[in-house]
Amino acid sequence: MLNDKGFDLWAYDYDKCVGISDDDGTYPFAGYKTVLNEIFNRVLRASAKTVLDIGFGTGVLTAKLYDYGCIVWGQDFSGRMIELAQRKMPNAKLFRGDFSKGLAEPLTHQKYDAIIATYSLHHLTDAKKLPFIENLLSLLNTGGSIYIADVAFDTRASLEKCKAESGDEWDDDEMYFVYDELKESFPNMKFEQMSCCAGLLSLQK
Ligand SMILES: C[S@@+](CC[C@H](N)C(=O)[O-])C[C@H]1O[C@@H](n2cnc3c(N)ncnc32)[C@H](O)[C@@H]1O
User: Fold this and answer.
1) What is the DSSP string of the chain?
2) Which one of 69, 135, 154, 177 is most buried, counting C-beta atoms within 10 A?
3) Which of 15, 52, 76, 81 to mutate to test the pocket of ligand 1 (most atoms within 8 A of CB)?
4) Is 147 in the pocket of ligand 1 (CB under 6 A)?
5) pLDDT for res 48
6) pLDDT computed for residue 91 by the predictor
7) Range 42-57 average pLDDT
8) For 153-168, what is the mean pLDDT?
9) Residue with CA closest to ligand 1 atom 16
10) Containing structural domain, residue 186
11) What pLDDT sits at residue 21?
12) How many domains, in total, are found in the chain?
């Protein structure tokens, strides 16, 4: 699994690499643009003003929301990613920090209309995902939504099928979402499969 230095090195090529995997329709990024567009449309439709992006990377999604007038807050641990995203969103409040150790303190003093995490939370173990999402729920304004887009599946069997089909490409270090295993803790969570490997998990408050 990549650490902050690994993401620093990947930062300048990131958009291109993701685009190639998405265009090929292959794991891990098949459906990437579709699912990000879907979140973009839902956030705007809900007239969300304040948006928190966890692991925003180069800011592909939040920079578009920023251009549409959203107030963007975010956390990432890669200095390079922050640099690239900040260039696109000069007034966004972007903090450096490892989310496996929690959110940067200033982010916990705000409430948000939308909280987004795209292709980032698979860096958390399943045990850490639950309290992390609980904490995000506490930071939502009433009527707000959490959108988690990632490599994600309805059941463990679907994950195993994708893993078998992906062969050596499959990254065993990443811990992907399995909806069946989360919904007991979050009965209101919704899941939509957006491609062979992309899933959208959403929660409303
Ligand atoms: C695959 S990229 C996704 C970027 C963006 N959200 C997107 O959809 O294109 C994962 C991002 O999460 C960040 N990240 C991964 N693990 C992290 C951690 N433990 N703490 C903070 N940021 C992390 C990386 O630096 C990177 O920018």
Assistant:
1) ---HHHHHHHGGGHHHHHHHHHHHT-TTTTTHHHHHHHHHHHHHHTT--EEEEET-TT-HHHHHHHHTT-EEEEEES-HHHHHHHHHH-TT-EEEE--GGG---GGGGG--EEEEEEES-GGGS-HHHHHHHHHHHHHTEEEEEEEEEEEEEESSHHHHHHHHHHHGGG--TTS--EEHHHHTTT-TT-EEEE-SSSEEEEEEE-
2) 177
3) 76
4) no
5) 97
6) 98
7) 97
8) 97
9) 123
10) 4-204
11) 78
12) 1
Q: Is 40 in the pocket of ligand 1 (CB under 6 A)?
A: no
Interval between CA 55 and ligand 1 midpoint (Å): 4
pLDDT at res. 139: 98
Nearest CA to ligand 1 atom 19: 98
CATH of the domain at 49: 3.40.50.150
Q: What residue's CA is closest to ligand 1, atom 15?
A: 120
> Sorting pLDDT into bands at 50, 70 and 90, what band is 97?
very high
164 Cα: distance to centroid of ligand 1 (angstroms): 25
Q: What pTM did the predictor assign?
A: 0.96
User: Which one has a higher pLDDT value, 18 or 194?
Assistant: 194
Alpha-carbon distance of 148 to 176, in angstroms, equals: 11
